[in-house]
Amino acid sequence: MNKPAAAVASFAVLVSSLALCAQTPSFTIQADKPIAKVSPTLYGLMTEEINYSYDGGVYGELVRDRVIGRGFGSLTHWPAVARGNAQVSVAADESTGPSAELPRSLRVAVTAAAADAPAGVENGGYWGIPVRSNEIYTGSFYARTDTPGLAVTVTLQNDQTGIAAASTVVTGLSSDWKQYKWTLKTGTAPVSANNHLLLTIAKPATVWFDLVSLFPPTYGARPDGNRADVMSLLAAMQPKFLRLPGGNYLEGEHIADRFDWKKTIGPWINRPTHESPWRYRSSDGMGLLEFLEWCEDLKMEPVLAVYAGYSLAQEHVEPGPALEPYVEDALDEIQYVTGGADSKWGAERAKDGHPAPFPLHYVEVGNEDQFDRSHSYDGRFAQFYHAIKQRYPNLQIIATAPVKGVTPDVIDEHYYMSAVESFAQAHHYDNASRSGPKVFVGEWATREGDPTPNLEAALADAAWLTGLERNSDLVIMASYAPLFVNVNPGGMQWSTDLIGYNALSSYGSPSYWTQVMFSSHLGTEVVASSLSDAPVRVYASVTRDAARHKLFVKVVNASSTPQPLAIALKGAGELAPQAVLTSMSGKTPNATNSIEHPDAVKPVERKVPIHGSKFTEIFAPYSVNVLELSD
Tens digit of pLDDT for each residue in 245-257? Predict the structure, then answer.
């Protein structure tokens, strides 16, 4: 006996629906059952001078090697320029410089030149100098000459066309070292990074230059500040802290190469620069005060790492009297950050232009001291810990490795993982002991993708972050590393970095967008939840903000198929009829962003209807999702 076609269709739909119900994993959320407080400082930034992160990166300086360094390669970025029949020779002069800290200079000897045939030097910046229309660039240099009254023409010129985007004349050079300031204003110049800075003279003379500087418009118009586009990317992450001045960069290859903070404050002319552990010289334009102002600009707090007597070449300082000067140096540094203008080092900060102290709650003693083969960290940490606590009892002290004898307030744990490892470690802290120190995951990353992470890495990062969120009563801070990479050839020393840039533009990787999604959708409490019958590569966490009447449901579907979840909300009250779903996905796990395609993988937002406290949501393959519910 044949059934009517409509009845057959209805029966098929019923069977399909029953099958879906039988197969759909369930996600039960007890919205009225908070199980832990979310750390208000959970998401922040870890910074390091690597991959040209400061010079050639976030720091706005456009001139490369603005200070003439020592030895071979000191003139690499200062080639001579001679037009027409002009003649010039260039050398690094070890006998004269603008200060005791900067004893060398760039000697430019012009033996033939004229107004239509000038000579001098040029600088190509960090793989180019960016030019945009109708912008004002601020510049300066220190100079002296054997021809008093000499004029120097400063030009921002296109590499290919030779057309000047802007030019000015600096007059009145003398035989004494002096700083000269100037501005360049571009007109309708084409947007390009293919430009260089020219310093030329129009008659025979010798000029000595040093500390040649050029800044574009900066973030928040801070004088000599940070690059605007990169800072805007950071601001979108809503960071709560900045771990500074870096990990290996703090230690240096040798003790003499450490981040010696007292040599990074005050006028540039008093900063001697130093070798970074990643084989290029730091200008130290990003000094201690600049780090603190970076925090101020993004409304975050510093996590101050102090040098603790260990450097990467296995040089260390024994605990006891030999270490005491370094302990005192750390106490001085804390006073520079937090002291009133009536204190010794607070007065120095005020003299440097910032009378008000900065907030500080965390001090980290050293960096990755588990690599110190002398095993001296127990003693070194204890000496710093007792001295800091005696002077600043309210500061939380972070250890960089397990220690005996003294219990730190926080321990810094680092994780660099493959995607497989990140997925496997998503539940790492679920059953961790709560009886010991709190945890700062000060460096972590899924290392898949080059120079910046691909979608697979972002999915694994998101899975890992669900675990950190669920356990943010224990994990009070976390920061991805490395933060930056200059994507030009030769700009990268470490692959898989959060934000990429060249001289002209910047972009966030898929992992960057994961960070943005998680940090901008964070409640104040973790609520109980359980995920049942979910396939592998599906992860979740839930936080709520009772004051804002928000519930943030994060779901990671790292599988290759759509994943329905039957969501059951208990104790949520009456829900708003619409929720906001922010989702980032791609067609393959290898999908990624780049300078050429900065928005290939990016979150999109849409509204979804909510019918009561039980509903099914289907999450796309290879996706990171945040469902924002309101009651």
Answer: 999 999 999 999 9
Could you tell me how many residues make up the chain? 631
Pairing of strands 45-46, 241-244: parallel
Question: Residue 173: which of 211, 138, 206 has the closest Cα?
Answer: 206
- At residue 323, φ and ψ (nearest 5 deg) are -85, -15
C-alpha dihedral, 88 to 91 to 97 to 98, nearest 10°: 40
User: Sign of the C-alpha dihedral, residues 241, 410, 53, 294?
Assistant: positive
Strand ranges in 129-219 using DSSP code E only, listed in sequence order: 136-145, 152-158, 164-170, 178-185, 195-201, 205-215
Q: Strand 499-501: give its sheet, edge to edge.
A: 484-486, 499-501, 506-508
Strand partners, 87: 112
- Name the one residue in this structure whose structure tokens are 């229309």: 133
Long-range contacts of 540-545 (CB under 8 A, 24+ apart): 540/27, 540/466, 541/465, 541/466, 541/467, 541/469, 541/470, 542/29, 542/31, 543/38, 543/469, 544/31, 544/34
Q: Measure the CA–CA gap between 554 and 455, rounded to whole angstroms.
A: 17
C-alpha of 412 from chain center: 18
Q: What whole-number distance in Å separates Cα of residue 212 and Cα of residue 204?
A: 21
Using CA atoms, how far apart are residues 255 and 309, in angstroms rounded to an integer?
8
Residues 388, 394, 400, 403, CA torsion sign: positive
Q: Which two tokens stand for residue 33?
A: 């059952």
Give the residue among 212, 126, 121 at the shortest CA–CA distance from 484: 126
Q: How far apart, in whole angstroms, are the C-alpha atoms of residue 289 and residue 424? A: 40
pLDDT at residue number 23: 72
Superfamily of domain 80-215: Galactose-binding domain-like (2.60.120.260)
d(CA 296, CA 5): 70
Residue type, 284: D
Q: Any idea what DSSP says for residue 227?
A: B
| Residue entry with tokens 């290392």 | 447
Q: How many CA atoms does the CB half-sphere of 163 hold within 13 Å?
A: 10
Structure token pair of residue 153: 């023409």
Peptide bond into 482 cis (omega under 30): yes
pTM (predicted TM-score)? 0.94
The dihedral built from the CA positions of residue 368, 370, 374 and 378, taken in this order, carries a sign that is positive
Please provide residue 409's backbone torsions phi and psi, each rounded to the nearest 5 degrees.
-70, -35
Give the span between the Cα atoms of 381 and 366, in whole angstroms: 8
- Reading the block at residue 6, the tokens are 């409509």
Question: What pLDDT is stored for residue 535 in this prediction?
Answer: 81
Distance CA 341, CA 349 (A): 8
Distance in angstroms between the alpha carbons of the first and the last residue of the chain: 52
CA separation for the pair 294, 47 (Å, rounded):
11
Ordered by start, the domain boundaries in the chain are 80-215
Q: Contact at 8 Å (CB) between 44 and 478?
A: yes
> What would the DSSP string read from start to end of 553-586?
EEEEE-SSS-EEEEEEEES--SPPSEEEEEEEE-
Low-confidence ranges of the chain (pLDDT < 50): 1-22
351-382 pLDDT, tens digit each: 999 999 999 999 999 999 999 999 999 999 99
Residue 235 backbone phi and psi in degrees, to 5: -60, -35
Strand partners, 304: 244, 363
Angle at 508 (CA atoms; ends 544, 510), nearest 5 degrees: 65
Q: Which pLDDT does position 69 carry in this prediction?
A: 87
Strand pairing class (195-201; 119-123): antiparallel
CB 46 within 8 Å of CB 244: no
What is the per-residue pLDDT for 527? 97
